[in-house]
Fold this protein.
Amino acid sequence: MPKVERSADVIWEGNVARGEGRVTAETGTFDALPFSLPSRIGQAAGKTSPEELLAAAHAGCFAMSLAGELTQAGTPPERLHVRATVILDEVENAGHRIVASELRASARVPGLSREDFDRAVDQADAGCPFSALVKASGEVTVRAELES
Amino acid sequence: MPKVERSADVIWEGNVARGEGRVTAETGTFDALPFSLPSRIGQAAGKTSPEELLAAAHAGCFAMSLAGELTQAGTPPERLHVRATVILDEVENAGHRIVASELRASARVPGLSREDFDRAVDQADAGCPFSALVKASGEVTVRAELES
């Protein structure tokens, strides 16, 4: 697999408390999504945030990793649902840090045993670059269930 | 500042090579953005990816941090432009990892000296939780220019 590079742009206008940013994807998939300090640390009020974007990245990465593990085992998924919750908190002597990402997954995989599912979940977490990213300075938890 | 939690959801359907995911923000700011393995590692073809979402998060975090430092110094910015480029690459014995995030910033700040700008940029990088996240296992570079 070749090296992958992906970019995004932010325009910020005004001071930190009353100003606002807009974030745009290089691919055009999202455009000028608003974010601000009050909506980042308080009520989100329909605005995104760096933490929400990381949750989206981690959920996407884990879902693809899990699809990969299940496909490789000969039991590709019909459907996966992954929710990631990213937590930003104050860390002593370090200011604010991403301290955790909590993953919840449910999977519809015909004919898969619970044991093989648990193995695929562990391998997906071990292989997902975003799980590794968060684990380097925080915690990743995974709760996964197999739909019956 | 209180603890911040932000979530996003992914639905993935199909095997890893031909299936597709859709990522949705809890705030509703973005909804069912498509991504897939071929568009993640090859031509993006108008689809997003975990790496693009992280670039958006890092650019947004750094822009807000820089606005914060400049505001605190008594010279709030009129306008900041920040681009982040996230790099996913193969690491020996570790598989694929987020190895770097490259930040490029330009700032319009009336009356600010180059020296004070450089200090604000350094402090913004040191304080931004996403710079810390990437630095725990990879590299962050910052190139910044002050518009004249």
